[in-house]
Write a structure and sequence with these properties.
heterodimer, A: about 200 residues, alpha+beta, Aminopeptidase, 5-stranded mixed β-sheet, B: Aminopeptidase, 7 strands, transmembrane (chain B), GNAT_dom (chain B), acyltransferase (chain B)
Chain lengths: ~200, ~160
């Protein structure tokens, strides 16, 4: 099946919001999603965007029964390491279920997973073909890496849940490393009342 | 002790570099620091990174380095990449002042989260963040940071589809 990957534009926000919601509904955590299409338009496509996106599209003849041709996305932003310099962070990576396991040359791999960094529970079936990486999800991730390199980044970072062993193995098999397990870094967050309190001058 | 916090300027990069290295020594990873103050000079501008330090007339004794990030669930966030106060100046509320300043700046930009990372053995830092109401997403929910760099990043790039 043919597909293409391109930079997202503001008109894509409706489909990106749809896919964010799809994933959250599948995960039964849709109450966690507060971001709207309008937020995405403002936050991703203004003068100083908070994120950038790439979209995977299929031709009209392969659209879904609801008529969608935009069937996957990756959302990323630039970050910084005070040790190593410019870095790129992949916040989301998602492919609609019916388009997983697709290779550009028409061969079908074993199903690859949905790799949204929000919270992914879908298990990954690993096989040699998957690891040779021709699926849409892999293509999106590679594209993010390429964009990062072009921007002078020397790291691609993201997060994954420790119980998601199949995802972890999938990434580790591609040569990345687990910064938390290897170096002992913990992810920390302040939000809600704690953040309000902290922000008092 | 009297201290002031202000936004960093390009001219601060040499001192920021010095403190980055001091922090790396403390974290037992000084061999990991690859960038210089020259890199900082160009990259601060590029990545819209802001740093707060104590101003001159005083000695530069601490800094915070942050940038904006995004959550597809909750929207705008701020990430605190570094927070450092020279050892002899600790205990005066400078670290707390720096962190609050970053939170305040984030709030003005409608950020709803402040995120950071901390080493598991760094008990004083972990205790400090806990008193500020920070949740440990690694211990609590199992989140791990994953990274591609060097050869693994090059290999991933080589598999990118042609435009």
């Amino acid at each position: 099946m043919e597909y293409s990957i391109r930079a997202a534009n503001v008109e894509d926000c409706k489909d990106i919001a749809r896919m964010i919601t799809e994933l959250a509904e599948y995960e039964k955590v849709s109450e966690h999603v507060k971001v709207t299409q309008k937020d995405l338009e403002q936050d991703g496509f203004s003068k100083n965007p908070f994120f950038h996106g790439i979209i995977a599209e299929v031709p009209e003849q392969h659209k879904t029964k609801e008529g969608h041709t935009k069937i996957g996305y990756a959302l990323y932003f630039y970050s910084y390491s005070s040790w190593k310099g410019r870095a790129i962070y992949m916040e989301d990576l998602y492919v609609m279920p019916e388009f997983r396991g697709i290779q550009k040359n028409g061969l079908v791999a074993m199903e690859i997973m949905c790799m949204c960094m929000c919270m992914c529970r879908k298990s990954l079936v690993i096989c040699g073909v998957c690891l040779s990486g021709k699926g849409i999800g892999k293509a999106l991730m590679s594209k993010v890496a390429q964009l990062g390199l072009a921007a002078g980044c020397n790291q691609l970072n993201f997060t994954v849940l420790d119980w998601n062993k199949s995802s972890l193995d999938f990434y580790l098999n591609q040569g990345c490393f687990d910064v938390t397990a290897d170096m002992g870094y913990h992810c920390m967050r302040c939000e809600g009342e704690a953040l309000q309190h902290l922000a008092q001058p | 002790m009297h201290f002031k916090i202000r936004a960093a300027a390009k001219e601060d990069c040499r001192e920021i570099s010095r403190m980055i290295k001091e922090l790396a020594v403390f974290e037992k990873m000084s061999d990991q620091v690859k960038i210089s103050h020259e890199d900082n000079k160009t990259s601060v501008v590029f990545l819209v990174t802001r740093v707060f330090v104590v101003p001159p007339g005083f000695t530069l004794v601490g800094y915070a380095l942050y940038f904006y990030t995004y959550s597809t669930w909750t929207g705008r966030s701020v990430y605190l990449e570094d927070l450092y106060v020279m050892p002899e100046f600790r205990g005066n509320g400078i670290g707390k002042g720096l962190m609050s300043k970053v939170a305040e700046v984030g709030k003005k930009k409608q950020c709803v989260r402040l995120q950071l990372s901390v080493l598991d053995w760094n008990t004083p830092a972990r205790d400090f963040y806990a008193t500020k109401g920070a949740q440990d997403l690694t211990a609590g929910e199992g989140w791990h940071f994953i990274r591609f760099d060097g050869q693994s990043l090059d290999d991933l790039v080589n598999e990118a589809p042609e435009d």
